[in-house]
Amino acid sequence: MIANKQVRNIGISAHIDSGKTTLTERVLFYTKRIHAIHDVKGKDGIGATMDSMELERERGITIASAATFCEWKGHEINIIDTPGHVDFTIEVERALRVLDGAVLVLCAVGGVQSQSITVDQQMKRYRVPRIAFVNKCDRSGANPFRVVKQLKEKLGHNAVAMQIPIGLEADFKGVVDLISMKALYFEGDNGEIVREDAIPDAMLDEAREKREELVDAASLFSDDLTEAILEEAEIPEAMILDAVKKGTLAREMTPVFMGSAYKNKGVQPLLDGVAQFLPSPDEVKNFAMEMTDEEREVALTADPKAPLVSLAFKLEDGAYGQLTYIRVYQGTLAKGDAIYNVRTGKKVKVGRLVRMHANQMEEIETIPAGMIGALFGIDCASGDTFVHQGMELTMTSMYVPEPVISLAIVPKDNKAQINMSKALNRFTKEDPTLRTFVNDETNETIISGMGELHLEVYLERMRREYKADVETGMPQVAYRETITQTAEFNYIHKKQTGGAGQFGRVAGYMEPTTEADFVFENKVVGGSIPTPFIPACEKGFRKCLAKGPKLGFPVTSVKVVINDGSSHAVDSSEMAFQAAARGAFLEGYNKARPVILEPIMKVAVETPTEFQGAVMGTLNQRRGIILGSQDEGPMCVIEAEVPLSDMFGYSTVLRSSTQGKAQFTMEFAAYKQVPKSIAEELIKKAAEEKKNVA
Amino acid sequence: MADVIHLRERFFSMLKKDLIFRNPLRVMGNDHEDILPVGGFGAVLARAGLGKTSLLVQLALDGLLRGRNVLHVSLADPVRKVCLWYEEVFRNIAAQYDLQQMDQMWETLLPHRLIMTFKKGGFSVPKLEERLSDIAEQDIFLPRIMLIDGLPFEADDIAETLSDLKGLAEAYGLNIWFAVRTHRDDPVGEDGMPVTVSRVAGMFDVAFQLKPDGKAVLVQTLKGGKEEVPSTLVLDPSTMLVKNPAASQSA
Asked: Which residues on chain B are in Cβ contact (under 8 Å) with A616?
């Protein structure tokens, strides 16, 4: 077995369309995991190997982060292919959690775009060291040094070029390695032969200048190197490599590589860079939380002999049942072991262990600390921690955002009904940002998630993978209700219709709060409501929150204070006080000026400047408040806050008004009050729906 | 039928009036109008870090409270950072006046503000005019007050740039405030202004200078304003808000 030092767990993360799937494909080819090259949207009808799902193949995008394994010059590299669209961020974040390092792929023409910024922020959150690859140097308009500048300015990276391109656009021939000071050319049918040569004379000055910049930047991380520079001695290559690695691991330096994956240029030096500069599992500190000790952080050691700690980070439904991708952080996972799921408290036996290469797999006996593999036949959810029995450690819980959009789905027939529930069961296990429930009133199944595309992709997968044909309703925005002023209530619940009577009086007030969704405070003195009935009052109030009296949306940001009441020695009961609290809530709520809130999205549109006016127009028409426009050379970014309900279908509108040259990202910003006219429409719609149900 | 009095709207308009009235910047100009005339220029001069942007944002908020549309042009900071400035200054004002329902008030102001940022080398008056006409034609935004932060006054063609901006201001019925960064060793002209500004001072109606004085920062009037009253304003170093110690003493 290869020593831990030679292992690299990396992600390839980037903006959609910057060519990361093509790059991954080339990596697999040069590491001899595949024997032919296909393009993302293959003319030969075969997609790139990492895009294992048919749907991804069709759309030219990567949705699931399949883990794959390859070897390069004595190093074992596990690659997690991560999706680039913001709607799938949970996938990206989960992949980032298990990575030790990443390659940030950027387009030499498009440069750092808004999506790259989002992805980079996520990498920062998980403290992932990264190297950058400026792809598509063969395209017209390619300018890798502009991208290096953008990395510095827009992402705040200390980006340092490791190479300079030999020719650009159609003349792109190869790269000059600034450490070895050699020109590299990529020859053979698929660029598999790397030929070293002297740097062309015309480029010598530029190469020397850029090398000096590189050595200068690296010297910050190595005293030896600084000394060597001062002494003007010959600088050994190893010294520079060592300093760059130190800077990269400290996340204070981002080495930048250049090439064109599509034209088979510059990929092998990038692989060398992965091996040289990105950390091995030994060099990364990982922490788990001790469940028995208030989630105290515990450092893990990448020792294969220590007790097991591992994280299931991805589930896939294969032909042989559920495949669980797992990263072992400490200890060793071996076939036949009994391991313990911390979340469920269940013990499970490890059956088959495999190492994945997109859709093909290789049986293995063990997964030692630091490695990624997959196991078969284990029932768990993604994000579950598996440990050696007796331990109570869990890997850091991941941040899961609340869904903002929902959609009603109705299966077309009985068979579809069964398949749909199977599919939803699987998807919700895979992706915690996807939720599903049945609406009691309409009996429809509702799915909710992070955006239109997010839901669309799952619907497609349902059709293709599960043959579940469903009809969908209009997307529904997750509205909320709240109150805007303080109002008092004083409600008596009294019933005397034979048998035991019911009596309870609850008095107090309710007011808007920003502290939490619901705050309950008991200020009753002198026992006017007997203490045992106070929890019943709270329960009564809480029950009213799920469905607001105004339009039936969940109620948020309400504080209820009870300060008086009365009871009856015989007729008062928990039930009676719950009912009294419900009555009191209704009484107070209607006086407290209830309003409807809607989710407002932060939208950033990146567009060539000539379409700036047109884009602002489209946002303005959607009730958007334009915050500002930011000049970025030929492009500009328009930032706005727009209600989610008006963003449906925006990608089509944007495409047609900018000749397809603009793109946008959107994320949830806040809940805000809907304007009167919209509120009236909602009320009208709700009334109609009620009529239809009746 | 009698007009309905909307208590909520009335509440906000009273609140706004109150804030406008209590704004210490009022001593700079007339009580009810903009400090600058239409087509007028104002400048806030200071060394780095003394609070130029904060003062500029306070001038903008004063305009916003009076229902003016404000266009904030920044050649230095990204949109997000400028937004933060506004939020911070507004939060401080709200805290100072113990303002309730600050969020709702902020919501009423936000649609009246637009931020445009340019890269330092990427800014030109024709470019700005193009953007402006773009949004004005579609009736998206018609500014009354413009703020320009980060214009290099030391540039050789500054007089030309300013005169182009003057034309723009007059055409659109705007007034413009500039934040001007000065340096410790800038030579000072006869009018007390640094020469970089002094050579174009004729174009300005009003100019303030921020000057450190012990722990406080004084807001000095260099030109215009109510010249008969020497400015007694200071910037509170903890909140960067303008204060009028003289007024609070007399009160």
From this structure: 134-135, 138, 140
**Which SS3 state, helix, strand or coil, does residue A533 take?**
helix
Chain A residues touching B123 at Cβ < 8 A: 631
Beta strands A385-388 and A338-341, pairing class: antiparallel
Of A51, A61, A56, the C-alpha closest to A16 is A61
User: Which is the CATH superfamily of the domain at B37-212?
Assistant: P-loop containing nucleotide triphosphate hydrolases (3.40.50.300)
- Distance of alpha carbon A82 from alpha carbon A95, whole angstroms: 7
> β-strands A487-495, A502-512: how paired?
antiparallel
Residue A241 has pLDDT above 80, yes or no: yes
d(CA A207, CA A260) in angstroms, rounded, equals 20
Please tell me the least confidently modeled range out of A58-62, A484-488, B104-108, B139-143.
A58-62
Least CA distance to B122: which residue of chain A? A633
pLDDT-derived band at A402, boundaries 50, 70, 90? low
Helix locations, B36-157, DSSP H:
52-65, 79-96, 102-109, 125-137
Q: What is the pTM of this model?
A: 0.60
> What pLDDT, in 10s, does the model give residues A543-588?
999 888 888 888 988 999 999 999 988 888 899 999 999 999 999 9
How far, in Å, CA of A41 to CA of A21, rounded?
10
Q: Nearest chain A Cα to B84, which residue? A: A627
In whole angstroms, give the CA distance from residue B116 to residue A631: 8
CB contact under 8 A, B119 and A672: no
Q: In this structure, are residues A381 and A343 in contact, taking their beta carbons and an 8 Å threshold?
A: yes
Do A629 and B117 lie within an 8 Å CB cutoff? yes
- CB of A491 within 8 A of CB of A507? yes
Q: Are strands A159-161 and B175-182 parallel, antiparallel or unpaired?
A: unpaired
Q: Which of residues 637-666 of A touch B (CB under 8 A)?
A: 637, 639, 641
- Determine how many CB atoms are found less than 10 A away from the CB of residue A679: 17
Query: Model confidence over A276-305: pLDDT tens digits?
Result: 899 988 888 888 887 777 667 788 888 888
A631 contacts chain B (CB < 8 A)? yes
Asked if B102 has any chain A CB less than 8 Å from its own CB, the reply is: no
